[in-house]
Amino acid sequence: MSSTFNEFYNEKTGLTIGVNGILFSEQTPYQKVEILETDSWGRMMTIDGMVMLSEKDEFVYHEMLTHVGMFSHPQPERVLIIGGGDGGTAREVMRHPSVKKVDMVEIDEVVVQASKEFLPQVGDWGNPKLNVVIGDGIEFVKDISVPYDVIIIDGSDPVGPAAGLFEGEFMQACYDGLSEDGILTAQTESPWVESYHPSMKQVYTALDDIYAVSKMYLAYIPLYPAGMWSFSFASKGGTDPLAEVVLQRVENGVMRFEDELKYYNPEVHRGCFALPNFVKDIIEP
Ligand code: SAM
Predict the structure, then answer these.
(1) Does the annotation count 154 as an active-site position?
(2) What's the CATH code of the domain at 27?
(3) Residue 31 counted as an annotated binding residue
(4) pTM for the complete prediction?
(5) Which of 1, 7, 226, 246 has the fewest CB neighbours in a 10 Å radius?
(6) 65 lines ligand 1 (CB under 6 A)
């Protein structure tokens, strides 16, 4: 083992992983993108020194960010992903047979190039349904002409180019760009990182104000700060992700590709909306 990767998520607590080598490192106009080789987690992508994904645990984040929302829509055909340059979210979206087109708007083409070269199995890059747009998702959503059935916010932490992805104005533009029964899901950080609480509350308050239904949900992701990660769900038309019709759709739908899923299943869909009291306290007024 030649070195260690350290990510501190508060002054004195962090994650340490043994690293065998740095396969890729580039300072782009937006951020520093690196691909590291590790024994314990496979290849790992970091942005500005923060873990974005590892080969070994990426399935949790991508399945949970995608399927909770996708199954809540009766027939998702047009899907927009903001960020997501590693390709993992698009891969999960395209498992749904109803999907006809996926637009993925990633601000940093280096993330896409490095993922294709060093993490090729994370994405389904050859799928003709996938349209990769290199651009700022915040600008893109201001100008949506054909509405999307599902919008997924797979952005980075609320600093730099991703800060605007946590603002009410952006959530309103997504609402305007959704079809009448449209669904939005977003990654909304770790409840254990206090410096992110204002962003979590900001997103949740905006979704609550703008959308007919909004809920937060959780998953366990080992390489993210303290292992607990939050996501947000919002429905324009009032779909409750725990409604009987959705649960039935999850039961029937998962059967089509359950062999390909390693985390998400009908029990996880039902259980992920159960929030511990300290998490409720972060987002509730
Ligand atoms: N799983 C990760 C995490 O730790 O939360 C997030 C995935 S990473 C692929 C997030 C991506 O969002 C990065 O590639 C970054 O370049 C992109 N991004 C950040 N701000 C963006 C913006 N305004 N528009 C489009 N993409 C953006």
Answers:
(1) yes
(2) 2.30.140.10
(3) yes
(4) 0.97
(5) 1
(6) no
